[in-house]
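Lecture notes, structural biology module. Today: joint structure prediction for complexes of two components.
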Amino acid sequence: MEQEQTLARRARRRRTLLTALLVLLVMPGTILFGVYCLDDRKYYFISLLLILYTMVPFLLVFERRRPQARELMILAVMSALAVASRVAFFMLPQFKPITAIVILTGIALGPQAGFLTGAVSGFLSNFFFGQGPWTPWQMFSFGILGFLFGLLFYGRRRPTTARGQRLWLVLVSLLGFVGVMVVYGPLMNLSAVMMMTPQVTWSMFWASVVVAIPMDLVHAGSTALFLLLLTRPILEKLERVQIKYGLLETPPTSR
Amino acid sequence: MARRTRTGYRDVFSTCHPAINFFYFASVMLCGMFFLHPVFLGISLVGSVAYAILLKGERTARFYLWGLVPSILLMALVNPLFNHQGVTILLYVNNNPLTWESIAYGLAAAVMLFSVASWFSCYGVVMTSDKFLYLFGRVIPALSLVLSMALRFVPRFQAQARVISNGQKCVGRDASNGNLVQKLRNGMTILSILVTWALENAIETADSMRARGFGLKGRTSFSLYRFDSRDRCVLLVLLGLVAVVLLGAATGENDILYFPRIVVKPLSWWSAVVYLAYGALCLLPLILEGLEAYKWHRLRCKA
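The predicted structure, tokenised, for the full assembly:
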């Protein structure tokens, strides 16, 4: 037992070291390489590399942990549900439950699971909607939303009174709305601007943000709506499975 | 990732070693994404669309014809609305200059997006799940399993949703019964049943995987691939072509400046070599297919 703990601690230290290396050396290195060797013109190439770097630590941590088969299957199910939900609503542009499902996975299973589910479902759903240079951006945007909600809500005590629960639900939906408007929207707008022009300027970015407002509003609104509808049932089911099969060492804090 | 050709026929390139398939798609997609030189763009578009048609048949060809041209033109027209850089002004719209450079860049970006999307659709047919797992099962075992399982779950959930919905229909509670509120409520019930089933089913799958030794050392793959002499030949050719293309990129043959004025390197014998190499790279699956057909033809003539 003790040996296991020291091993785990050593693994954690190695991961921290790797992340630090990535953030402090590789990322600035890539940016400098872009500025000096590529004449500071290949924004898209450099930004794509940076996006990929940010995903690497998550994936490494996940692989190093040697996750159990049950955990893998739950993640696969949540990703597949997210993808299927995006496919089911294909006729309504931007009106999709995929973001809500990723957010709920983050809340129920933690930041890491949230990030992975987001990234995996972003990647896989584009096999149905069309892959392209926007895929890594979408993977990252979905993933970071799942990660943020995991950080905010995972393992936290939830209100037990009926009134408190209703308030909590409204809070989650509101935050989902804000998250899409503040995190997902700007990231995807930035990627669109970078794909459309070789020289990115602030005025262009703001123009794209303004143009995209209706679409982002639909996406954010639908996310909030689906969160209102889905939060209770999906969280209940996920927690039920966790308790029934003992997937977590510490059971969810409240029922 | 998991789709196969409808007829069951597999083209020559698909039968090569998965490492070659993956390396090929990685290089053509990256090149396609970052080379905005019109010649390179044209080559990439032709190669990807031709391969997609070879893989998926004539229905795809019709789809490309009717979808490709209008959407590329649309993107070319949209870009100048937001982008007024460039020195060759064609006309003024509401005091905003419409420049030739911005139209050209819009065209280039549209062709780039389309050819990469087209490469990805080929990738989806060629790189089946078992090939992906064979390649990455050792490096990133957990993640590659999640990817291929999730992709498999999507059609499975859709089928199960139909089963549940039929069951609910028998008791008059399908998503098509009742007024709008009832329809929504029934739809939510179906979704709820589906999620419960999916989670329980996943746990059962996981337990049966564990029972069969998932995660133990020395597991083998579903499909076995041998790196034979043909694969070595293809790999050598592939590496040679990629090397020439990268050398060309290093010497700036693929460089193009769109703003403020379109600047391209003049044509020289070296740029012609780079274009040829890139053309051979993008058309490699078709070339292999042609060689195979030729070989078959020769054999039949001899017999």
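Point to remember: Chain A is about 80% helix and 0% strand.
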